[in-house]
Design goal:
The chain is an alpha+beta fold. It has 2 domains: about 130 residues, no CATH class; about 80 residues, no CATH class. The protein contains 9 helices and 13 strands. The strands form 4 sheets. The chain has a 4-stranded mixed beta sheet with strand order 4-3-13-12, with helices on one face. The chain has a 4-stranded antiparallel beta sheet with strand order 5-6-11-10. The longest helix is centred in the first third of the chain and has 21 residues.
């Protein structure tokens, strides 16, 4: 009998400990789903079963920090370096920051912004482009960009950024000189030296490295920054624009003046 009583006490203690591990913390605000004295959302297992674990990364809309959790996209491929642009964010705080509204319809989400209606349609992507969980809408970050014809960027593991088309992105260079100064900071010493001492006819090897980075971050977003400089000069293809920047950077590193479209 004593052994039975002792066993019952041990089981009771174990149950209390288990309940303490899985039960809700009294410091959690059940309305917001956040810790009362923290800016960190609760890692809700029911959400993680559908999309993914929480990711520690900041979200910005038009350079304003947004209070939203970021959940990992479990279906994304492995990339070299950080890639969180396909992760899931809450749509509501994104829209509120823009003064936009949204409505969930059959198979799509309609976002109304500045009198225009933008749709995120599952049929154009896949069934996992967004999730409706407990009245919250979790959307892939890039899907919002595509729907609103905006642009995105990622700052390493620090933050992901969404820009609307009507927002002037001052982070994109507006002149060749600004491009060169930005590349001075972006590229490591070895890459800078290799570009400097390469032959002009060999600079095409940077098309899928440095060139791709330039196109993704400076050319494709547009915003009438460096892309406008090239259009005004009669150069319209993004590949040609990125090559001109790399070619001009080569001359810049060698202290030689370069003009767009020069045959030298």
């Amino acid at each position: 009998m004593k052994r039975l009583i002792l066993l019952s006490i041990v089981l009771a203690v174990l149950l209390i400990n288990l309940k303490g591990c899985t039960g809700k913390d009294s410091s959690i605000n059940e309305e917001t789903g956040k810790l009362d004295n923290s800016n960190v959302y609760v890692n809700d297992s029911s959400i993680n079963d559908e999309i993914g674990e929480l990711v520690n990364i900041n979200v910005y809309v038009n350079d304003i920090k947004i209070d939203t959790p970021v959940h990992n996209d479990n279906t994304k491929l492995d990339y070299y370096g950080p890639y969180n642009l396909s992760d899931y964010v809450l749509l509501r705080p994104i829209c509120e920051s823009l003064g936009a509204t949204f409505e969930v319809k059959d198979g799509c989400i309609e976002i109304k912004y500045h009198g225009e209606i933008y749709a995120i349609e599952k049929r154009l992507y896949n069934e996992n482009i967004y999730w409706v969980i407990d009245d919250d809408i979790f959307v892939k970050f890039t899907a919002i960009r595509v729907a609103m014809n905006g642009s995105v960027k990622q700052d390493g593991r620090k933050g992901i950024y969404l820009y609307t088309r009507d927002y002037v992105r001052l982070d994109i260079p507006a002149t060749l000189e600004e491009c060169y100064k930005a590349l001075d900071k972006e590229l490591d010493f070895l890459t800078r030296q290799t570009i400097k001492y390469s032959k002009v006819e060999d600079l095409a090897i940077y098309h899928f490295g440095t060139g791709l980075w330039i196109r993704n971050n400076w050319i494709y977003p547009g915003n009438d920054r460096i892309d406008k400089v090239f259009r005004d000069a009669g150069i319209y293809h993004p590949d040609d624009m990125s090559y001109e920047i790399i070619k001009g950077y080569h001359y810049y590193l060698n202290g030689i003046q370069y003009e767009i479209g020069s045959k030298n």
